[in-house]
Amino acid sequence: MLPHDSPFPSRALAALDRLAEGLLAPGFWATNRLLDLRPTTAERRRRRRRRCGQCRGCTGTLLAGVAFVALLLLSLPVTALGLLLWLPVQATRRPFLYRHTAGTAAAQPWDLRQPRTFTFLSANVCLLPSGLAKFSNLGDTPQRAAVIARRLAPVPPASPGARAGLVEPHGETTGYGGTLRAPRPPPGSVAVAVPEVTPAVTPAVTPAEAAEAAEPVLSERFPADTDFVCLQEVFDGAAAACLCGQLAGAFPHVLWDVGARGLRGGRPVLLGSGLLLASRFPPLAARYRPFPNGRGEDALAAKGLLVVQVLLGSARGRRVVGYIGCTHLQAPAADATTREAQLSLSLRWLQLFREEQEQRGDLVAFDVLCGDLNFDNCSRGDELNQRHPLFELYRDPCRRGPGLDAPWAIGTLLNYLRIYEEPVSTPEKMRRTLSQPEGRQRYLAGPILASGEPDPAAPGPWRGRRVDYILYRQHRGTRTEVAGVSVITQLATRSDHLPVALRLRVAPDGPEPGTHRGTLSPAPTGGLSARHPPEPATAP
């Protein structure tokens, strides 16, 4: 059963929560404004340009800081009272909210006589309270939330055939990048087929040289045919409400305000999970599970896994369903073992949810896991997570094996200290800049050691840390092909992550009435770059 669009089961509890938040408001406001005094690199640059701006700015900051500290100290008794009231009330809070907007154009049910494409989008939007966002060189959370919300809610295409023209086309390059051939993957990894390309020249090339021959999969705009949006770090309440309201105009179903706050395992959890999922298809069931092993500052947020079963259509009395998971793992680089445990929990919870919800005769069209996993497939410091058994069941279309990505894959984590520089200040400029090796070296975060420090021995030229994933799983009864992959630059200066998009082409594994195998029409790719062939269909 999906909860209503209300966080509490009774008005009395909702009133107590509002009272507690009112008592907490002065202390929270003072703390947030105090942290918000930390300038971003863009704010520092503007101060330096103004005559005497730096001196006046420092004086103003000092006076404001004194005022906010004084207000914080004065509000401590009221804050303590509010916290004592707020913590127990959170035990009754629903794990997430569900908003259904009647009248919003829903996706048409899947007619199994034709193959269908489904487009998924995942993005870490860093919508924390403005003071906390400053630690990622981002501020002005309300303004960023409004811009992100508008850009995430495009008008849906009138028909599947209209998809190709709704996103700016992305130029194709030749094949996979010349002569690159993936080495045999280590035991326990997923073997992914890579086409052999006849070399244009006889001398052998190194993987790094071959990788540079392939243009990265970059797009300036979100796909207008997006069916599912999975967001991370939507921590700020006002930002979450803004996103939910705007997305409701394009996606009839939104699950938001996800997370179990309050006292959890004897420790206070002050923020939700930051997860949000919007869908053009109706959800049949949903479940959120918090990770029990958060550490450090991550333990203050209710990070976990949100998994949803959606109804895509029906055929001969059988339900056609899909499964979508959205998650955000432990962030600090040194916490690889914590992430490893969270990956194992996620894998088990995904399987349990399917077993609980799947009915006899269901046709599963897709099983997708999205999120910020906080590790990449290029850093020596992330080797433990790169080899997790999750990748034996779920496929990463950008990955060829542990430690080896496809040559067209590109990092999704920006060098946050440079996000306001002119070459990456707009979606168009960022796409052009990141298409060049020198642009990636300067503006993408590079490979790291286990300590989180840059890896001085990382072979170059590197393509950056790819920490944002959309993984998919094959199933009996359907044939799934990757129709396109994109890393998107539309949130330039609005986040320190690049969103990712995946389009899957799904067809029944066997002829349905009125169809013939081998005569399927080509799937439109729009702005998603289809740089790789269909992968072999296997069932776990």
Structural overview:
The chain is an alpha+beta fold and 540 residues long. The chain has two domains: 11-90; 95-508, Deoxyribonuclease I, Chain A, CATH 3.60.10. The protein has helices spanning 11-36, 41-49, 53-89, 130-133, 141-152, 207-212, 237-247, 336-357, 383-386, 390-393, 427-434, 437-443; strands spanning 97-100, 116-127, 218-219, 228-234, 253-256, 262-264, 267-269, 276-279, 283-290, 304-315, 318-328, 363-372, 399-401, 404-405, 468-473, 478-488, 500-508. The strands form four sheets. An eight-stranded mixed β-sheet has the order 1-5-8-4-2-17-16-3. A five-stranded mixed β-sheet has the order 9-10-11-12-15, with helices on one face. Helix 8 links the parallel strand 11 and strand 12 (363-372). The chain starts with 10 loop residues before the first helix and ends in a 32-residue tail after the last strand. The relative contact order is 0.15. Mean pLDDT is 84; it is low at 160-206, 512-527 and 529-540.
CATH superfamily of the largest domain: Endonuclease/exonuclease/phosphatase
CATH class of the largest domain: Alpha Beta
Structural classification: alpha+beta
What fraction of residues sit in β-strands? 15-25%
How would you characterize the largest beta sheet? 8 strands, mixed
Count of runs of 4 or more consecutive helical residues: 12
User: Strand tally, please?
Assistant: 17
**Number of individual domains:** 2
What is the topology, as strand order, of the major beta sheet?
A: 1-5-8-4-2-17-16-3
CATH topology description of the largest domain: Deoxyribonuclease I, Chain A
Order of helices and strands: HHHEEHHHEEHEEEEEEEHEHHEEHHEEE
Shape: globular
Kindly state the mean pLDDT as a whole number? 84
Q: In CATH terms, what is the architecture of the largest domain? A: 4-Layer Sandwich
